[in-house]
Amino acid sequence: MVSIASLDTKQSVFFSHRDPEWVKWLGTRKLEINSSEIQLQEKAVPCAAS
Known about the structure:
The protein is mainly α and 50 residues long.
């Protein structure tokens, strides 16, 4: 129990969706995706139209 109690940091591990800094970070975040990843995703999704 002592080792488990030592893991408690007294801080939440979750972020607030109302925190202005988090909202700004989340809203301005850009992900870099290369074209080979996009092609793999497109091949993996079956197309109902064909």
